[in-house]
Amino acid sequence: MARTGFTDMVGTVIRSVGERGPRGVDRAHSIDDLRRMTRRRLPRGPFDYMDGAAEDERSLARNSDGFADWRIVGRGLRDVSEIDLSHTILGTPSALPILCSPTGFGRLFHHDGERAVARAAEAAGLIYTLSTLGTLSIEDVAECASGPRWFQLYVWKDRAIASDLIARAKASGYETLVLTIDTAVAGRRERDYRNGFTIPPTVGLKTLVDGALRPSWWWGFLTDDPLEFKVVSQYTPGGTGPGGVMGYINSQFDQTLSWDDAARIREEWASGSSGGTRKFVIKGVQCVEDARLSVEIGADAVMLSNHGGRQLDHAVAPIDLLPEAADAVGGQTSIILDGGVRRGTDILKALALGADACSIGRAYLYGLGAGGQAGVRRAFQLLEGELRVAMTLAGCRSIKEIDSSAVRRLSAR
Q: Angle, nearest 10°, between helix axes 344-352 and 318-329?
């Protein structure tokens, strides 16, 4: 007992070095501030895995830069004494017009991982989406947080795994299934190649030296439960080993997946629900044709996404596709913009251009890396405050009042 108490005390001291608690993350005044805090706290491999993208990272850059092509129209002499940021996303009330996008390997960035994000989302009144590659199981997330939950599905070559994941998500009360369609093959993430990065990270001389400069992260990594993909760990063969888990997972993505398969997955998810209460979303839509096909199979929403630039470099940015997609399928299905959101003004622009909501990934991961649950909460606070100011100055008193008149495209020079 004495040794355990001493270990806990040492852990508390070490984790306090470099990790941003509630007061520390409050010094962040933008998502980019949280990114800088995370970069200081995480070893290079985990940070670059979070922050990086495919090849030259042009898709990653355009996802955010595309918002700069639009200007917000300021409007005065309107009663903006009360601003209502609340919204409804696929029938679920939400405190903001945003939701948490699925992101894998949460405990790679902070020892509390998905648990911290799910709890912060619940406290903020937001939807949390668990990834197939989560480091907390479907059941554990449902137990630790009672807020609205979605589950994101990758389909592997063994289709029975997808069916079992669907059954588990149903049994645990997840409300919406998000089928990702842009992973026929893993993207070439060159930062990871250069770093020799593996999941879980290997402990060699280089990583030990790096860890000495970042003790709070390493203490959590070395003393907490082993880093495993708890959602799918029961399906991966024991012979893959720590260094081969990602190679095995990448080899299992099903390159034969078709729209007929997507329709069957939707039917499987919907079976047994009353009144269509379970919703179905297609994530990874990068062209109008796929948006239309999503509508044809009965998807309740399309998520315009290029996987945060992590799959195909030079891909169309979601914000660039949004106006065309809204013209094609707006009113027939909900449109969720996923990618590049770093500011409240980005959210306003997306809603004005036809999105029904925005999905954020790196924005909250930077908060997670900087300070766990407190950091995620800070990310939500920053986006909320920025959106409130933007709506006030644009004369929009509620989300419903945001329309195309609120923005103008920047003229080409």
A: 30
Tell me if the pTM is above 0.90.
Answer: yes
The H-or-E segment that residue 149 falls in is strand 149-153
Amino acid identity of 79? D
- Which letter does DSSP use for residue 160 in this model? H
What distance in Å separates the CA atoms of residue 217 and residue 348, rounded to the nearest whole number? 35
299-328 confidence digits (pLDDT tens): 999 999 999 999 999 999 999 999 999 999
Out of 29, 87, 307, 314, pick the active-site residue.
Answer: 307
Sign, Cα dihedral of 16, 17, 22, 23 = positive
322 within 8 A of 304, measured Cβ to Cβ: yes
Nearest Cα to Cα of residue 193 among 51, 55, 361: 55
Q: Which two tokens stand for residue 85?
A: 């940021």
The verdict on whether 307 is a catalytic residue reads yes
Whether the upstream peptide bond of residue 200 has omega within 30° of 0, thus cis, is yes
Task: Report the residue count for the chain.
Answer: 413
Dist CA 10 CA 3 (whole Å): 10
Backbone angles phi, psi at 339, to 5 degrees: 140, 125
Tell me: the pLDDT tens digits for 267-282?
999 998 776 689 999 9
- Angle between the 362-393 and 31-41 helix axes, to the nearest 10 degrees? 160
The whole-angstrom separation of Cα 269 and Cα 278 is 7
Is 261 within 8 Å of 153 (Cβ atoms)? Answer: no
